[in-house]
Design a protein that fits this description.
It is built from 7 helices and 7 strands. The chain has 181 residues and is an alpha+beta fold. β6 (152-163) and β7 (166-175) form a beta hairpin. The longest helix is centred in the N-terminal third of the chain and has 19 residues, at 22-40.
Length: 181
């Protein structure tokens, strides 16, 4: 059975003014390559399934999030999420694609599962990137509006991690839109 994935774009009314021709390129990238990773990547799927099986409570996730913020990158629990088989795999994906600068994977509650680089917080579930791409288990592609960070134009694209046509988590890709062909 084939699953149709909805594509959501942040603040739709100003999209064409901000994105111009790049919107078509980024949408094609999201649908063709990035969504395929969410649908088929076995390393990512396995990591998400393993974390979902742990059954973390929201109380636990929020406690981890509070402890995460402002901690050094080498703090053991941050390092555990970054330095694992899935994190290594994400860094390999980035090394193969010059338009990517970061990837992080979230579980069915929006908590980090693995990441290529340290995120500012552990809990992503309160943000559009997780809410819209996880979509209550339906799954959707979410393309956020571009931003400027450290003088570089960046953008986030989030896709669901799918298993048997159900979203079990989500992946956010940090991209350089100017490097997308």
């Amino acid at each position: 059975m084939k699953k149709t994935v909805m594509i959501l774009i942040g603040t739709v009314f100003c999209v064409t003014m901000i994105f111009g021709a790049a919107l078509a390129d980024i949408t094609a990238l999201a649908k063709d390559e990035l969504a395929t990773i969410g649908f088929k990547d076995k390393v990512i799927r396995k990591a998400v399934m393993e974390q979902n099986k742990k059954g973390f409570t929201m109380e636990y996730i929020m406690k981890m999030d509070k402890g995460w913020r402002g901690q050094p990158e080498d703090t053991y629990f941050i390092k555990d999420v970054r330095e694992n088989k899935c994190g290594d795999h994400l860094r390999d994906l980035i090394a193969e694609r010059d338009y990517l600068f970061e990837i992080f994977v979230m579980d069915n509650q929006g908590a980090n599962v693995c990441m290529s680089h340290t995120t500012g917080d552990y809990m992503q579930g309160d943000e559009d990137k997780w809410q819209k791409s996880f979509g209550g288990g339906e799954g959707a592609i979410f393309i956020d509006l571009p931003e400027e960070e450290d003088g570089k134009k960046i953008q986030q694209v989030s896709v669901p991690v799918m298993y048997k046509n159900v979203a079990i988590g989500a992946i956010t890709f940090g991209i350089y839109p100017d490097k997308v062909d």
